[in-house]
Structure to design on (509 residues):
């Protein structure tokens, strides 16, 4: 069992952490160097977290649990106009990223209005490529309970909704969780109750992932996504030239490889493991709606019949 | 004492409270706090309608050329008007206006604070130039008010009706065609607000 963790510390000797984690059989998911500071998001074998903690102390860094690591979250706004941005959408996304998630902001083309709001098939598919969708809505109960649920149609992933009033989640069709106190806000979210509300968003998303992981535990994936990530990095050299901050983004049940589908999907399908299987045997490799990237959906043990 | 500067009414209390906050944020972002004296708003998302009414502060005179410069006719035999500037703040706007009217070639600015306008009608132009409006404060503020309106009203409400005068700004917005009821309501809100501060509509 791997524990998602985040290391924050100085750049000096941070490679010791990386090497330790890799030696222990863990994975480095993301490394961001910001001038003299470094933030590393990683998966550490749960029984060895003590060793990493000791090393962190030695390097005078800070080690925290990052429960959202290895997930991709869509933060959905009715549009990308100044009514929604930069507050609170960016602030919510920021809070999710701080706990290790990869967030994408999705601004719908025609998500505004009570009667007029709509979502296109393309947008729907794009949102479905994520692990969770966080819809950021406004101040009025009627809007959230009656008008906006149209935007959830066809979304298969768990849906978190935020808005200002107190609403029972049962009143919002198709929503899984509702978080109050984040409605339309035109200033930076920094007051106590706003911060609490954002912490609450992070908590509920974490709970959703815990449940999802439990589900995955019942029928394990044939291979763990971080291992596929490592193999792709070793075998598809083009990935090292990708400038995106996260060239391979992990999702709960797969990954997104930020290479052109037409050019590289065969190479990615042919990635092989020491056990003698190829990626195409244990995963579906398909086209992503996002910039023609490659999506890898890992099959479960019940489908392939084995685990590696 | 309860603050009655900004009052938002709505069937939904929470929504109204937060909308009040949004209005405060937008007005302060655009530095309109001193321009809009009182605000009354009404939101009903079931209709759906949004009514915004803002009372404006008066007395924003436009800046004329004679407010910050002295004008003279050029020396004997010269068909020109001399402008001596006392303030440099408006030079860019002034030059743009002069270029527009007389052409670039006829405007000479050898010194920072002296501008020479070459024109055959210098006798009449000198008076005209004195009254030329250089900085339209009202226009700029009107632009900002309209910008604030667009930020405040809910995004989907694209059908709008408005009145913009020196005394008030009135906006009715919805996503359906504007009903006469809403307009009537807006007008009665306007009248009662104007009455409150002792003005007649």
């Amino acid at each position: 069992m791997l524990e998602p963790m985040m290391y924050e510390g100085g750049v000096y000797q941070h490679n010791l952490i990386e090497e330790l984690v890799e030696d222990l059989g863990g994975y480095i998911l993301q490394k961001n160097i910001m001038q003299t500071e470094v933030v590393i998001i990683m998966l550490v074998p749960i029984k060895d977290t003590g060793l990493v903690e000791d090393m962190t102390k030695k390097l005078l860094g800070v080690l925290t649990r990052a429960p959202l690591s290895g997930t991709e979250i869509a933060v959905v706004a009715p549009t990308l106009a100044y009514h929604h941005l930069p507050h609170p959408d960016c602030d919510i996304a920021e809070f999710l990223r701080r706990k290790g998630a990869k967030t994408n902001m999705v601004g719908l083309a025609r998500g505004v209005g009570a009667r007029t709001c709509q979502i296109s098939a393309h947008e729907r598919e794009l949102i479905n490529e994520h692990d969770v969708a966080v819809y950021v809505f406004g101040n009025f109960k009627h809007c959230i309970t009656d008008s906006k649920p149209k935007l959830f149609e066809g979304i298969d992933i768990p849906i978190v909704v935020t808005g200002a009033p107190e609403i029972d989640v049962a009143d919002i069709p198709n929503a899984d969780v509702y978080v109050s106190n984040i409605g339309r806000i035109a200033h930076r979210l920094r007051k106590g109750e706003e911060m609490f509300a954002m912490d609450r968003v992070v908590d509920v998303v974490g709970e959703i992932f815990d449940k999802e992981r439990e589900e995955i535990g019942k029928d394990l994936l044939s291979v763990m996504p971080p291992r596929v990530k490592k193999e792709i990095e070793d075998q598809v050299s083009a990935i090292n030239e990708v400038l995106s901050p996260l060239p391979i983004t992990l999702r709960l049940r797969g990954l997104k490889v930020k290479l052109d589908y037409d050019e590289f999907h065969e190479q990615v399908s042919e990635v092989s493991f020491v056990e003698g299987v190829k990626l195409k045997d244990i995963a579906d490799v398909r086209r992503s709606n996002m910039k023609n990237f490659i999506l890898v959906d890992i099959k479960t043990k019940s489908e392939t019949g084995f685990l590696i | 004492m309860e603050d009655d500067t900004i009052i938002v009414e709505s069937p939904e209390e929470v929504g109204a409270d937060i909308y009040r906050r949004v209005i405060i944020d937008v007005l302060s972002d655009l530095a309109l706090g001193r321009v809009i004296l009182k605000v009354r708003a009404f939101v009903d998302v079931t209709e759906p309608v949004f009514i915004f009414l803002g009372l404006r502060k008066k007395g924003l005179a436009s800046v004329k050329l004679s407010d910050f410069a002295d004008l003279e006719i050029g020396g004997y035999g010269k068909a020109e008007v001399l402008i001596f500037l006392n303030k440099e703040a408006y030079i860019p706007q002034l030059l743009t206006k002069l270029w527009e009217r007389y052409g670039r070639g006829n405007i000479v600015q050898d010194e920072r604070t002296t501008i020479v306008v070459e024109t055959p009608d210098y006798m009449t132009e000198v008076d005209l130039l004195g009254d030329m409006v250089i900085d339209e404060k009202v226009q700029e503020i009107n632009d900002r008010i309209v910008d604030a309106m667009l930020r405040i009203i809910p995004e989907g409400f694209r059908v709008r009706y408005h009145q913009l005068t020196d005394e008030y700004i009135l906006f009715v917005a919805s996503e359906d065609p504007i009903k006469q009821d809403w307009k009537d309501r807006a007008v009665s809100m306007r009248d009662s607000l104007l009455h409150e501060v002792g003005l007649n509509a």
Remarks:
- The first strand of chain A starts at residue 2 and ends at 10.
- Residues 225-304 of chain A form one domain.
